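Lab channel / #folding
Pinned by the channel admin:
"Please post every new chain as: sequence first, then the C-alpha cells as a reply. Keep commentary short and put observations after the output so the thread stays searchable."

First post following the new format, from NK:
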Amino acid sequence: MSSVAETPTQTPGPDVPEVVVEKAATATYSQRKLIWRRFKKHKAGVVGGYIVILLYACVFLGEILAPHNPSTRFYKFVHLPAQRIHVISDEGIHFPFVYGIKSNFDRQTGIKTYTEDSSKRYTIYPFARGHEYTFYGLFTTDMHLFGTGKDNPMFLMGTDRFGRDMLSRIIVGGRVSLTIGLFAVFISLTLGSVLGVISGFYGGQVDNVIQRIIELIFAFPSIPILMALSAILPPEWPSHFVFMGIVTVLSLVGWGGLAREIRGKTLSIRESDFILAARVVGAKDHRIIFRHLLPSMFSHIIVIATLAIPGFILGESTLSFLGLGIKPPMTSWGLLLSDAMNIHSLSLYPWLLMPGVCIIIAVLAFNFLGDGLRDAADPYSSR
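Reply from TO:
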C-alpha cells in the first residue's frame, strides 16, 4: 500500500512579517488599485482631495448657495461687517436668525458704523426665496439653499465698498478662479506633454530646439510676462473673451516646466522593454508616443497637473489683483482681493481679506492632494 505525501498548506504564522503578508495579498492588484490603496493612506492628501471636491461643488452650485445676487448693491449697508448668527434671544431659543441693522455716521471720523437692531429679527430658512437666476441655462428659479427672504439683510461675510454681499461674490468668484486653473492646466499639459515626449523621445536637434525655447521662456520673470501679455488683450472685449484670453496667457507661460518634467520621464522609460518590443514589431513613432509612452505616464501626468493648478490660480489672482485680469461684471478671488490693497482698508474692513483666505485654502488643498498622488504613484513609496 503506497502512501502519498501531502504538502502542508502554508499559512502566515506569527513569525511572518506583516509587510510580507501585505505584499503577497496585493501581488495581483492592478497598478491603478495599488495607487488608490497607497493614496488612501496619505491622510493629508485625502483631506486635500475632500476640500478640492467641496470647493468645486460650492462654485458649481454658486447661484444656489449665494444668498444674494453678486452684483446687487445695498447702498444702505456699505462696508458692513459680518453679521452674527443667533439662536438665543431675550424671548428664548429660536431657529437660526440675524438681527436687523442700525447705522450711525461718525461726523468726526467720517466712518459709518453699524449696530444690531434687536427689535428686528430675520429667520434664516433653508430653501428660501431670493433673487431670480438662471442655472446654466437649464431653468430659472429664485430658490436658494438658505436665506432670510428677498431684500432682507443677511450678510454673513459683510459687504464691500458698493454694499455687495461678500459671501455671494466669493462663491461666484471662486468659479472663475478655479475654472481658469483647470482650463489653463489642461492646455499647458496638452502642449507640454506632447512637446516633452517629442523632446525626450527623439533627442538630438529636436531636443535642443525645444529646450532652448523653454529656457527662453524661463529667462524672463513670469509676472512681467503675464502683465505684458495681459495688457495686449483689447479692453473692449466682453468678459468671456477676457476669460479665455487669461487662460491662453497663463497656458503660454506655464507649459515649459510641465514639458521639462515629461521629458525627464520620457528619457527614463524610452529604452524600456515594451518600447523596444514596439520598435521590433515595426510600430511607427507616433504610435509609440501616443499608444505607449503617454499612457504609461498617465499617473505621473495627473500628479503634475494637480501640482500645477495652484500656480495658475495664483497667476490669475495676481493679474486680477493688479487690474490686468478678470474685469467686471465678472469677478474672481483676485479681483475681490484688490479692494484690500491699502492699509486703510485693511485696518477698517479686515473682512475684505476673505478672498485671500479662500486662495490660501485652495492652494494648500491642491498641494496636499498633489503630494498624496505623487507618493501614491511612486512604485518605491513606503506607503
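NK: The first helix runs from residue 18 to 25.
TO: also worth noting, Residues 64 and 201 are 49 Å apart (CA to CA).
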